[in-house]
Design a protein that fits this description.
Structural class: alpha/beta
Low-confidence stretches: 45-49
Strand order of the largest sheet: 3-2-1-4-5
Radius of gyration: 34 Å
CATH architecture of the domain at 69-142: 2-Layer Sandwich
Distance between the termini: 99 Å
Oligomer: single chain
Number of strands: 5
CATH class of the domain at 69-142: Alpha Beta
CATH topology of the domain at 69-142: Nucleotidyltransferase, domain 5
Order of helices and strands: HEEEHEHE
Helix content: 25-40%
Largest sheet: 5 strands, mixed
């Protein structure tokens, strides 16, 4: 090398170098994640054999009502009844709150049994559950019929 020529420099010294994000490793990681989830989902699906018929679960016989238990019926026509009395949905909260007060005065834990007609929409059942929650009931039991 002569004194007039210096080392070869392909980037001029006055051009600032940018700080770029290396994309190649990011693409590799995303590709590996896609492969992993694809293979695992196929493995899970192959373990489900459609020829296997699962058994029907039968629960033990329902307990009889206890003194601190009140039954709320959501009838097929949408009406709510408690102890044979038809109530407006707005009146259910005060009735349940009174039940909670009576049970606590007797030293018992109050609970509600909800018997909802299967043809009623969930929004009506949610209204009943909201009244139970507002009354401070900690235990709500749903009744269902046994599988025949």
């Amino acid at each position: 090398m002569t004194a007039e020529t210096g080392p070869l420099n392909f980037i001029p010294p006055d051009v600032p170098r940018g700080h770029g994000l290396p994309v190649a490793p990011l693409v590799d990681i995303v590709f590996l994640l896609v492969c992993f989830f694809t293979f695992t989902s196929q493995l899970i699906q192959t373990q489900k054999d459609p020829a296997v018929e699962l058994p029907v679960m039968v629960s033990p016989e329902a307990q009889r009502e206890v003194p601190a238990e009140v039954t709320v019926n959501l009838r097929p026509d949408g009406a709510v009844s408690v102890a044979g009395r038809r109530l407006a949905p707005a009146d259910l909260g005060p009735v349940l709150a009174a039940h909670v007060r009576q049970a606590r005065a007797a030293g018992l834990a109050a609970r509600v049994v909800v018997r909802a007609d299967e043809r009623r929409p969930f929004a009506e059942l949610d209204t009943v559950l909201g009244a139970c929650r507002a009354a401070g009931l900690g235990q709500v039991i749903f009744r269902a019929r046994a599988k025949e």
